[in-house]
Amino acid sequence: MKKELELVAMSTWLPTNGLPAVISGPCSAETESQTIATAKQLAATGKVNALRAGIWKPRTRPGQYEGAGAEGLNWLIQAKKETGLPVTTEVANAAHVEACLKAGVDILWVGARTTVNPFSVQEIADSLKGVDIPVMVKNPVNPDLELWIGALERLNKAGIKKLAAIHRGFSSFDKGPFRNAPMWDLAIELKTRIPELDIICDPSHIAGNRDLIALISQKAIDLNMSGLMIESHINPDAAWSDAKQQVTPAVLGNIIEGLVARKPSTDNKTFKDTLAVLREQIDQLDDEIMQKLAKRMTISEKIGQYKKENNVTILQVGRWEEIIATRLAMSMAMGLSEEFIKDMLKLIHNESIQIQTKVMNKEGERV
Ligand code: PEP
Ligand code: MN
Asked: Would you say 197 and 212 are in contact if contact means Cβ atoms under 8 Å apart?
C-alpha cells in the first residue's frame, strides 16, 4: 500500500502509558476562573492527558458566544502552569496560529468547519512551515473522506508530522439520534487507508447530549481508536456554548473509569484479526439498524398524529397484510428465514401501534 503520510506516533507527543489519550476541557474558555477551575478539577481525576478549550468559536448562527479571543490564550497557559497539562485549542486561520505559537500552546486542532475549506487549511499549513507542533484535524462537517485526508496531506506537506485525526461525526439535514451522525465506516476506512494515523474520537460533538457520551466512548475504544476528546465544564448547564453535551470533570473521570479495556480472547493472530473485522462490520450494521428503527418509529408517531387529525383508525389491516407480503418476499429472496422475519415484523408493527395509540390518546395540545 502506498504510504500516504509521513507520521510521528501520538504516543511520542502525548504519552499515556499505553492507555487511550484523554483530552478534555470546556467547549469554550469563558473566563479565566472557569478555565483554570475546570483544568484543576480535570487534573485531579488523574485521567486526563491534555486540556482543551475553544478560544475562537465558529458558531453556526451569529449572535452566539464567539469566544474570548486572544486574551483566552493567557488563561489556557495559566491553566497549564497550574496543572502541568499540555493545552490545545482550535485554529481557523494564520492569525490564530501565530497567536497560539506566541503564547506557547502545545497542540493545535483544526475544526470541522475549517477542514471543509482547502483555502483555510492551506493558509494554516503555510503558517506552520518550519514549526514543530502537533496538529489534530477534525473530520469535515460533510462525510467526505478525501477532504479529511486532503487536509492532513496539506499539513503534512508543510512539514507537520505530529498529526492525528479527530472523528466528530457528520452533520445532515435529516436529524437522527445524534447531533452529528457518527458514520463509523468513514473512520474505519480512514484507519484502513492510513493504518499508522492515530484517530481520536470526539463523543461530545457526535452525541450533542451528555447521556450518550459513555456509550460512544466505549464504541471508540472497541474500534481501537487512540484517544477521546470530551468536553467538560465546572457547571455544564450554565456553559456559554454546547451546554447539553458537556459533563463535569468528576463525571468525565467516571466515564473514563467505566470504560472497558478490550482484551483478546485468544493469542491466535489470524483468529483475532478475522473476528475483529467481522465484529466491526456487525457493530456498524447494528448501529445502522438502530438508527433506522428509531427513524421508523418517529415516522409512526407522525402517522399517528395525522390519523388522529383525520379521525382514521390506527390499525389498517390491508396495509399490514401488504407489509407482511412484500417484506417476506423480499427477505426470503435474500436468504432470510420466514419465521425470523415474521417475528421481527410483528414486533415492529406492535411497537408502531403502541406509539400511535399514545399519540391518539394524548390530551390537550396537538403535538
Ligand atoms: C469544538 O470542538 O468545540 C468545535 C467547535 O467542534 P467542531 O469543529 O467539531 O464543530
Ligand atoms: Mn463544542
From this structure: no
**What kind and span of H or E run contains 271?**
helix 269-309
Pocket flag, ligand 1, residue 179 (CB < 6 Å): no
Looking at residue 4, its pLDDT comes to: 79
Please report, for the chain, how many H helices and E strands are present, in that order: 14, 8
The finding on whether 112 has its CB within 6 A of some atom of ligand 1 is yes
Considering only 1-10, 23-32, 115-124, 324-333, which range has the smallest mean pLDDT? 1-10
Q: Strand pairing partners for 231?
A: 25
**269-306 per-position pLDDT tens digit:** 888 889 899 999 999 999 999 999 999 999 999 998 98
Ligand 1 atom with least separation from CA of 166 = 9
Q: What is the pTM of this model?
A: 0.76
Three-state DSSP at 153 gives helix
Structural domains in the chain plus CATH codes: 10-258 (3.20.20.70), 269-364 (1.20.59.10)
Report the distance separating Cα 172 and Cα 183, nearest Å. Answer: 11
Neighbours of 137 (CB within 10 A): 27
